[in-house]
Design a protein that fits this description.
Helices cover 39% and strands 14% of the residues. The protein is α+β, with helices and mostly antiparallel strands. The chain has 2 domains: 193 residues, Class II aldolase/adducin N-terminal domain (L-fuculose-1-phosphate Aldolase, 3-Layer(aba) Sandwich), CATH 3.40.225; 134 residues, no CATH class. Helix 9 packs across helix 10. It starts with 12 loop residues before the first helix and ends in a 5-residue tail after the last helix.
Length: 345
């Protein structure tokens, strides 16, 4: 059975439309990142792992689960609370890595996005203090970084005493919840308006030099296809930050262990023929991606440019350490998601 053979239930139409809107806005969602859910009649409907929110109106992307069973297995400390709780055991896609987070929150509709504005705060050491000013009056909570999946769910569980409607996930993203799709979307828009940051302008990429590098690589590299990716290389401040390390999980999952190499043009010419790193930010020239990478990697290269252009050069930053990156790279759930992560079409 294929996912396309399973029709999307009519009651998911509003969630699918909202998901498609979110997934089509690169400032909120990049590639297969982010997830949405709806609780109804004792069931949890959540985005399937590896699917793109932008495709929600084109194909079935939601997996149905027995909500009480997920919560029971979570409470029992099981390593995999979601998969055994599927309503249709034959449905070919796995529920989102973040299914337990969606199950844990009391809201009927939950939206998890990788907002570039939010991440620009969430990677700062002083992020919680800055957010406290901008989110004053909302019920919100800061969640220190934890690996996506069960560790993140446990970290969220620790802050639910204040009944927050907004969660800012350290070095990760944003979660909002509401009584229905309209309320959740309105809250997301309100948070985005409060956290909006101007993007620092960046010089245009040097397309001629990028073409020379791609040719010198013998097909191992190609220029990044999304313009924002080049901003991290042509803006000196963004380039300096990019070399510090990985700032959020999807960067490591799709672009490999940090730091991103930031060579000069001559240094890049000397190494592109050897292949290697997924992403090269060539100083003052632009971004090169390894030619074998998927559309998900293209999106993450763009995300880096979008995030760093919103961060002040003097900001104190936090990056994922080597052990945090290692647990992402060795995680079977993320390997599965990456294997599916090609652009819908």
């Amino acid at each position: 059975m294929t996912a396309e053979a399973v029709p999307t239930p009519p009651f998911l139409t509003a969630l699918a439309a909202l998901s498609a809107r979110l997934g089509s806005d690169r400032d909120l969602v990049q590639g297969a990142g982010g997830n949405t859910s709806l609780k109804r009649d004792g069931a949890l409907w959540v985005k399937a792992s590896g699917t793109w929110l932008s495709a929600a109106l084109d194909r079935p992307i939601f997996v149905g689960l027995d909500l009480a069973e997920v919560l029971r297995r979570l409470e029992a400390g099981e390593a995999e609370p979601a998969m055994p709780a599927r309503l249709d055991p034959d449905f070919p896609l796995r529920p989102s890595i973040e299914t337990t987070l969606h199950a844990l929150l009391p809201h009927r509709v939950v939206l998890h996005v990788h907002s570039v504005n939010t991440i620009a705060y969430a990677i700062r050491e002083d992020g919680p203090a800055l957010l406290a000013e901008r989110l004053a009056g909302l019920r919100w909570a800061w969640v220190p970084y934890a690996r996506p999946g069960l560790p993140l769910t446990r970290a969220v569980q620790a802050v639910l005493g204040g009944a927050p409607d907004v969660l800012v996930l350290g070095n990760h993203g944003l979660v909002v919840g509401g009584d229905d799709e309209r309320a959740a979307e309105a809250l997301l828009e309100a948070v985005e308006a409060r956290l909006a940051l101007p993007a620092r302008p960046a010089p245009a990429p040097d397309e001629a030099r990028l073409a020379r590098l791609a040719e010198a690589s013998g097909g191992r590299y190609r220029p990044a296809a999304i313009g924002a990716a080049h901003d991290a290389a042509t803006d000196p401040d963004s380039l300096a930050m990019a070399g510090k390390g990985a700032f959020y999980p999807d960067h490591t999952v799709f672009l490999g262990a940090s730091p991103v190499p930031t060579p000069s043009f001559d240094a890049a010419m000397a190494r592109v023929g050897e292949g290697g790193p997924a992403l090269l930010l060539v100083e003052g020239v632009g971004a090169l991606l390894r030619a074998d990478l998927t559309a998900g990697a293209e999106e993450m290269a763009a995300c880096l440019g979008l995030v760093l252009s919103r961060v002040a050069p003097e900001a104190p930053l936090t990056v994922l350490d080597a052990s945090q990156e290692a647990e992402l790279l060795d995680w079977d759930a993320e390997k599965y998601r990456q294997s599916l992560n090609r652009a819908p079409g």
